Amino acid sequence: MAYILVVDDDIELATATSIALEAAGHEVSYELEIEKAEKSMHARKPDLIVLDVMFPESDTAGFELAQKIRHYDDELKDVPILMMTGLNQELSRQFSSGDIDQYWLPVNNFLEKPVDLEVLCDKVSEMLS
Question: Tens of pLDDT along 4-13?
Answer without folding.
Answer: 999 999 999 9
